[in-house]
C-alpha cells in the first residue's frame, strides 16, 4: 500500500493565506486545523486568551499579533449572538479582506448588519453543516467538514472574487458546496437541524422524572433519538432565538401531529382513527427514506442481497469483484449473525445495473437473494 | 469458520429442551439460533410455511412435526395482536409445558387471557428488550438478547419451577433479568420505547413534503433522531394499540412540552420565556445523562470510522486489508454524501482490538476519524 494520502489530500489548496479565524471554538479551531493541514497560514483570535492559546496548541494556527499582514480572508466562527458584531468589526478592521461566517442561522445576522448600514460588498455568509454534541477547541478536528454540505449565501452584489475565495476555503476543507438564499437556508436548517434538536431535547427531558426501573429498559432507539439532547443549551438558545419564525412554525405543525396521533390512539373507535395512525407511521417510513446516506429504504437505488461466508476475507473479495465487474456500489450494509454461518451484504446499486450485477455475481459463484 | 460455540457458549445451558418456538420472525428465530448455539433442541412453527422453512435454514431449529415429543417450554414470539391466542393454544396443546411470550406489551394479553378464563398457572409473561428496525428471520441473530434487559412478569400464583424455566431461557440467551408487574412494564416501555417511536415517526413524517435542498442538509442529528422511523408500521400499530393508555398520557405530556416551548420561543418578550427555554433544554441534558451505557449505538462493539474514496475498489481494498491484519469486522455501515468524493466506512470491532485496528490502518495510509 502506498503512503500517499487517501481521499482528497493530494489536490493543491485553493485558498491563499493568510486566513484569519475569529472565534477559536469547535468550528474555528477545526477550520484552522483543516487549512493548516493544506499548508495555509492561519491566524487566530478569541475573546478568551485561554481558548485561543488552546487552539494554537492544538495546531489550529498562531495567535494573531499587530505585526501580522492583513488577511486575504476572515472567517468568523463566534457564537451566533455576537456574529454580526464580529463580522462588522472584521469588515472595518480588514477592508481588503473577504469576510465570511459559519453561523448556523443566516438571515438574522444579515438583517442586523443591513440595519446598521454596514457595507456588505466583501461579506459572503456561509454555513458548514458540521458539528458535534460537545464544543470547544478540544473537540476540533481537521476533517470536521469533509463530505459535509457547506451552504454559501451569495446575492447579486457579491463580487465573483469574493465568492471564489469563500468557496475555495469550503472546498479545501472538504465541504460540498450548496448555494441558497438566507431564507431558504434558515427554513431548511429549521427542519433538518433545529426541529430535531428541540424534539430530542424535550423527549430526553421526559426522562428526568422517570423511575430507575423504566430507564433501565432503555435501548438503542431511545439512545439514538436523544443523542443530540446532550448539546449545549446556551448555544441552542442563541440558534433557536435567531431562527424563531421557521422553528415556531415547525414546532406548531409537529405539535399538531402529536396531538392528532394521541387523539386517534385515545379513541380508536372513531371513524378512520386506525387509518390516521397507520398513515402517520407510514409517512415516517417515507420521510426517513428521503434522508441521503440512510440505509435501506432509498428509492433511488436497487438493493441486491448477496450471501457471504461470515469471514472478513469474503466480503473484501465480493467488493473487489464488484469493482472488477465495473459495478458502482452506492451503499452497503452488512448483516450477519455470529450464531449463523452466513452473512448478507446488502448492496445498493443504480436500478439499471441491478440485473446485470446479479447475473455477473451468480456467474462468479455468489449466491444472491 | 469453526463449529465451536462462541460467546457465552462455555457455560452449561440452564434450559432443558425441547424448546418449542411459535412465530419464526426476528425474535423467534433469534431465540432459536441462540438456544441451538447452547446445544438445546429447538422446534419451530409459524403460520407461514415459507417463514418457518427460512428460519430452519438459518439454523434456528427444525420444523415441529407430530412425531416430536412434548416441549418442556413454549416461547410465543408472534405479532402482538395474536399473542393471546397463541399463548392460549400453547397452554391447551402442551399442558405439561411452561409457556412464555416475548410480546412487547404485557398487560393487554394477560387481561384478555384472564377474560377468557384460561388457566394461567403455567404461563409467565416476559419481554426481552431487543429488536431491530427490520424484522424477519433474515435479520435474526443468536446474540440479539446478549446484555439486554429481559423483563419477567410473575405473579404470586406463578410456580417456582415455571419461573426458573423461563429465567433459564433468558439467561441462556445472555439476557439480564428484570422483574416487573405488567403495569410497571407497560408504563416503562411506553416511556423508553413507544414514545420515542411515535416521536421519531412524526419527526420523519415532516420530511415528506420537504424540498430536496432542505433534505440535502441533513446530518447525523436528523439521521439518529429518525432512525427508528423506518420500523414496521403494522407492528407498531399493534404495539401502540395494546398499550394505549400509557402512550396517550405520555404523548399528551410531550405535546404540552412542545407547545410550551413553541410559545416561549414565539414571544420571547414575555416574562420568563428565555428561562423556560433554557430550563427545557437543560432538562434534556439531564434526561439523556440518565440513560445507561450511552456510548455509540452498540454496547458490545467499538466503531472505527475510516475515510474512503467514494469508489467501490477502495472499500474492497479496506476490507481486504482488514482481513490481512486479522481484524474481525462485526458490522459495517457505509455513509457517504451525494456529490462528495469521500465516504465513511463505520466498522464495528471488538473493543479490545479497536486501538490496534486504528494504528494498523493509519500505518497503511488510511485516515480514521
Automatic annotation (TrEMBL), chains A, B:
PROSITE patterns membership: ACT (PS51671), PDH_ADH (PS51176)
First-tier enzyme category under EC: oxidoreductase
Positions of transmembrane segments: none
UniProt entry keywords in alphabetical sequence: Amino-acid biosynthesis, Aromatic amino acid biosynthesis, NAD, Oxidoreductase, Tyrosine biosynthesis
Protein name as catalogued: Prephenate dehydrogenase
Pathway: Amino-acid biosynthesis; L-tyrosine biosynthesis; (4-hydroxyphenyl)pyruvate from prephenate (NAD(+) route): step 1/1
GO molecular function annotations of the record: NAD+ binding; prephenate dehydrogenase (NAD+) activity; prephenate dehydrogenase (NADP+) activity
Protein's GO biological process: tyrosine biosynthetic process
Family affiliation: Belongs to the prephenate/arogenate dehydrogenase family.
Domain Prephenate/arogenate dehydrogenase: 17-299
Domain ACT per the UniProt entry, residue ranges: 303-369
Keyword flag Oxidoreductase: yes
Organism field: Leucobacter luti
Matches recorded under InterPro entries: 6-PGluconate_DH-like_C_sf, ACT-like_dom_sf, ACT_dom, NAD(P)-bd_dom_sf, PDH_C, PDH_N, Preph/Arog_dehydrog, Prephen_DH
Catalysed reactions, semicolon-separated: prephenate + NAD(+) = 3-(4-hydroxyphenyl)pyruvate + CO2 + NADH
Enzyme Commission no: 1.3.1.12
Amino acid at each position: 500500500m502506498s503512503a500517499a494520502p487517501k481521499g482528497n489530500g493530494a489536490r493543491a489548496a485553493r485558498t491563499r493565506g493568510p486566513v484569519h479565524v475569529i472565534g477559536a471554538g469547535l468550528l474555528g479551531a477545526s477550520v484552522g486545523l483543516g487549512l493548516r493541514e493544506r499548508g495555509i497560514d492561519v491566524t487566530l483570535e478569541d475573546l478568551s486568551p485561554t481558548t485561543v492559546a488552546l487552539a494554537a496548541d492544538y495546531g489550529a494556527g498562531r495567535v494573531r499579533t499587530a505585526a501580522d499582514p492583513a488577511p486575504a480572508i476572515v472567517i468568523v466562527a463566534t457564537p451566533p449572538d455576537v456574529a454580526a458584531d464580529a463580522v462588522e468589526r472584521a469588515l472595518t478592521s480588514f477592508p481588503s479582506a473577504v469576510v465570511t461566517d459559519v453561523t448556523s442561522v443566516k438571515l438574522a445576522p444579515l438583517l442586523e448588519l443591513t440595519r446598521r448600514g454596514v457595507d456588505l460588498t466583501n461579506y459572503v455568509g456561509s454555513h458548514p453543516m458540521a458539528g458535534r454534541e460537545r464544543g470547544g477547541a478540544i473537540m476540533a478536528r481537521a476533517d470536521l467538514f469533509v463530505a459535509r454540505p457547506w451552504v454559501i449565501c451569495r446575492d447579486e452584489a457579491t463580487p465573483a472574487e469574493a465568492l471564489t475565495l469563500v468557496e475555495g476555503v469550503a472546498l479545501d476543507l472538504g465541504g460540498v458546496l450548496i448555494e441558497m438564499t438566507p431564507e431558504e437556508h434558515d427554513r431548511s436548517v429549521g427542519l433538518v437541524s433545529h426541529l430535531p434538536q428541540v424534539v430530542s431535547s424535550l423527549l430526553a427531558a421526559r426522562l428526568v422524572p422517570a423511575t430507575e426501573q423504566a430507564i433501565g429498559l432503555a435501548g438503542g432507539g431511545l439512545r439514538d433519538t436523544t443523542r443530540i439532547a446532550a448539546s449545549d443549551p446556551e448555544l441552542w438558545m442563541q440558534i433557536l432565538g435567531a431562527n424563531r419564525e421557521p422553528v415556531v412554525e415547525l414546532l406548531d405543525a409537529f405539535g399538531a401531529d402529536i396531538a392528532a396521533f394521541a387523539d386517534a390512539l385515545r379513541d380508536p373507535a372513531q371513524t378512520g382513527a386506525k387509518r390516521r395512525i397507520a398513515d402517520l407511521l407510514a409517512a415516517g417510513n417515507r420521510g426517513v427514506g428521503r434522508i441521503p446516506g440512510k440505509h435501506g429504504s432509498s428509492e433511488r437505488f436497487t438493493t441486491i442481497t448477496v450471501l457471504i461466508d461470515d469471514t472478513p476475507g469474503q466480503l473484501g473479495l465480493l467488493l473487489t469483484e464488484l469493482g472488477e465487474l465495473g459495478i458502482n456500489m452506492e451503499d452497503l450494509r452488512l448483516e450477519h449473525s455470529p450464531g449463523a454461518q452466513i452473512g448478507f451484504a446488502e448492496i445498493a446499486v443504480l436500478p439499471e445495473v441491478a440485473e446485470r450485477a446479479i447475473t455477473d455475481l451468480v456467474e462468479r459463484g455468489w449466491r444472491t437473494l
